[in-house]
Amino acid sequence: MTTTASLPADFEWGFATAAYQIEGAVDEGGRGPSIWDTFCHLQPTRTKGADGDVACDHYHRYEEDLDLLARYGAKAYRFSLSWSRIIPLGGRDDPINEEGVAFYNRLIDALLARGITPWVTLYHWDLPQALHDRYGGWLDVEESQKDFERYARVCYERFGDRVKNWITLNEPWIISIFGYATGGNAPGRSSINKDATKGDTAREPWIVGKALILSHAAAVAAYNQSFRPSQGGQIGISLNGDYYEPWDAASELDRAAAERRMEFHIGWFANPIFLAQDYPACMRQQLGDRLPPFSERELALLREARPDFYGMNYYTAQYARHREQPPSETDYVGNVDELQENREGTSIGAASGVHWLRSSPHSFRKHLARVYRLYGRPIYVTENGCPCPGEDQMSRDEAVRDDYRVRYYDDHLEAVAQAVAHDSAVVAGYFAWSLLDNLEWSDGYGVRFGVTFTDYDTLERTPKKSALELKKQIEKRLDSEHTVADLLRR
Ligand code: PNW
């Protein structure tokens, strides 16, 4: 294995989680229901029968979990706040739940006591159910912005004295497309999914996308106006998106298809958010009026709210092949076929424990370089990880020998180091997904992404091999002579 020592000496790193996937205690401490409680309970066939009622019981076992982080040597921990634990009904005139605030205060203080830096995601998919009922949640571009801004302000006010790293939203693409196009995630709306009774795949995801972009911007602008001067933190957003290689590398049309696919994945959000521009031209061209435009006032807000960093969630890559037929109204990928093998039959990478993920570190390096070149902000990899092949069927003693995951992390960290050394990318941190095996959304508890094995009967935690390897894999790539500030000056 090659080792490129190019990561800045102050490289941030640790592990990531999300509230609904680990906390449990959904009826405790005054928490209100979210759209994920509703989705799991009313439509259990859409989550393999699983729900987050108990999950990893992190709400009661957080001290133990933070001890694991300390044992793994983590410098930082990325977690999300449950909006409906803090404001049970979610809205700007609804009461704050002090018990919920107190829980996160304890969590933050317990992290700081261990010398671990908190990285807080405001929204990781768990919209208060009351807002969905009141005005359709993210389908209402104006209302959702105002309520999200107020929620963000409450979080800065209550936690910002100690939290200096904020992520507004996790994966707006997944929120819009899985929630409102395919219906695979809460609130499960779709007009192309037989399990869904409501929705409009041709229109709703693009409205929700706009609501998310402007809600993010409102939260950043609020931080800039009222909190940055006194608190001095940084704020960004986490975008997902695979890297796409052309199915036929010799085909001009497939090369264009790969680039178009990435514009539909990333440019949709990154052009408005990082460049204060309209959506990519290829989206406008294909989607026309279904893509709601930005007014002058909205573009001014976006200019005022440029994020400090780009949070990148990266898991895999695919091949894109152009389609001869024109796109249907429900197409959301830019009229391409997505494949895991190219024209020659070469796989994009080694299969993992879940169908959509193959290990493609070479594509990761290209992805880092492309994103930095286009959007020009320091990148923090806010998620990267995998389940091992067959891990869902393994006993604990088998699962802790997770050599596939050890290799996956090492290969992907090497890709980061090479992108920094050779492609001029500025990468300032890395968070492995995830600290614990947890509720993998519509895949239930079968698919395990953790570096810690969770026994869902006893809730006992057992570190896997990868948990203790990550620190070594990062440290062997550190360059003690340089910092992130030096990389930015190159
Ligand atoms: C992310 N895909 O979601 C989420 O941020 C995590 O909460 C989740 O547990 C993790 O990745 C692992 O899945 C994704 O199908 C879910 O391409 C699915 C996809 C990508 C990201």
TrEMBL record:
UniProtKB keywords: Glycosidase, Hydrolase
Indicate the secretion signal residues.
none
Coiled-coil segments on the chain, per record = none
Which InterPro entries does the UniProt entry name for this protein?
Answer: GH, GH_1_N_CS, Glyco_hydro_1
> One Pfam family this chain carries?
Glyco_hydro_1
Do the record's keywords include Hydrolase? yes
- What family is this protein classified in? Belongs to the glycosyl hydrolase 1 family.
Instruction: Name it.
Output: Beta-glucosidase
Q: What is the lineage of its organism?
A: Eukaryota, Fungi, Dikarya, Ascomycota, Pezizomycotina
